Amino acid sequence: MGTVYLARPRFGSPVAVKAVHPELADEPEFRSRFAREVATLSRVRSPFVPAFAGADPQAEVPWLATAYVDGPTLREQVERVGPLRGAALTGLAAGMASALADIHAAGIVHRDLKPSNVILSPTVRGSWTSVSPAPWTAPPTPGSRG
């Protein structure tokens, strides 16, 4: 869908900015869906999901920014040290369940939940989990193909 960049503002905390691939930016249906996703994502409030920082779905290159979460993905962690066990696994499961419940409560369906979209970070309010917002989608509006 796009490329993610780490942005370091002069003041404030770093953010992750996802810039949409140009070929998608030229598709009106994609832009409409992306605008709905941005509007829905801005309503998510969860200690286990990166906070919405801003977006411009109408820009020449549409973009979305969330709080930056410093940590490896679940995939990277498992490749590096092997499967999670004990308290680490329990913490991951609890964090994932909370993140998904909060996402669903905002009316969002995560369409691509996989280890490379889960960021592990002990600094996210004591959690080991932060679910990437990039592949989320708002439910389709009536009459759309979503």
Description:
It is globular, with a radius of gyration of 16 Å. The protein is an alpha+beta fold and 146 residues long. It has helices at 22-25, 28-41, 74-81, 86-105, and strands at residues 2-7, 15-20, 52-56, 63-67, 109-110, 118-119, 130-131, 136-137. The two termini are 16 Å apart. The protein is built from 4 helices and 8 strands; from the N terminus they run ββααββααββββ. The chain has one domain (2-137): Transferase(Phosphotransferase) domain 1 (Transferase(Phosphotransferase), domain 1, Orthogonal Bundle). It is 32% helix and 21% strand. The strands form 3 sheets. A 4-stranded antiparallel sheet has the order 1-2-4-3. It has a two-stranded antiparallel sheet with strand order 5-8. Mean pLDDT is 81; it is low at 125-146.
Number of strands: 8
SS-based class: alpha+beta
CATH class descriptor: Mainly Alpha
Low-confidence stretches: 125-146
CATH level-four homologous superfamily name:
Transferase(Phosphotransferase) domain 1
Order of helical and strand elements: EEHHEEHHEEEE
Could you say what the CATH topology is called? Transferase(Phosphotransferase), domain 1
CATH architecture: Orthogonal Bundle
Question: Which strand-content bin applies to the residues?
Answer: 15-25%
Please tally the helical runs, counting DSSP H or I stretches of 4 or more residues: 4
Record the strand order, biggest sheet. 1-2-4-3
Integer count of domains: 1
Give me the Rg, rounded: 16 Å
Helical content stands at 25-40%
How widely separated are the two ends? 16 Å
Mean pLDDT equals 81
The largest sheet, given as strand count, sense and whether it forms a barrel, is: 4 strands, antiparallel
Shape: globular
